[in-house]
Amino acid sequence: MTESLPGAHMREELRSQPQTWATAADMKAEQGLLPALGARVAVVGCGTSWFMAQSYAALRETSGQGETDAFAASEAFIDRGYDAVVALTRSGTTTEVLELVDRIKGRIPTIGVIGDPTSPLVSMVDEAVLLPFADETSVVQTRFATTALALFRASLGEDLTAAIADAAAVLTDTDDEALRDAEQYTFLGRGWATGLAHEAALKLRESSQSWTESYPSMDYRHGPIAIAAPGRVTWHFGDAPEGLAAQVEATGARFEHRAIDPMADLVRLHRLALDRAVARGLDPDQPRNLTRSVILDA
Fold it and tell me: What are the residue boundaries of the SIS domain, all occurrences included (predicted)?
């Protein structure tokens, strides 16, 4: 493989995920910098980081470790008595995150989970958890997002052995051209997997300019199922509600679901996003209208 091939960086980065997850799972000191048991926490980010924040918030609260809310950094309601704010950002340069952290500095303890150790956010937060080994060249995020989530999951006491094994296994899958070439995709999830569904839809839109949607599983039948049809895909992350598969298949759409760790299923989507982009003559390392970090003019 050479860097001249479309998506070369994304391919290398997405394939490294089992190893980067294992590294994050072993980072006990860094995990100790994250909010303590019982703390009331807000987690903020933009784009992909917002969706990972949603997954972390759901995992933390449902495991009984404290009230946890997730916000897009531009729409965060921070003055609600939070004990800490976790700011998740690959670049550490995103305008909305920097502005929020600056606004609450000295009032609410902030913890940055950051890919670039040279970024301005490192010196602005009270504690910096650095993941430079998961940083990326490709504009389209893969491993930084999932590695941050692996760190969060490990900090909550989860054993990631099965997730890592599942991710390694999906990287050896044979190509599924029918899945790759579908007309439309809807992604669903429950609980913490809902954030992964939203991220999957974003990833496929960014990389291949595809028509994608995403919803909490139980909300899908409240309208969105109307677009299910032959040649289209409904992809479910994690355990699916009883009867949903049959209802989707009755429309003629494909119900895509595997009984694997939902984070590993997102790796499977990363592969499909790359393959679909390349098949369409696109380069997901440099997607249309996007940059690595959104830096807004003053």
Answer: 29-178
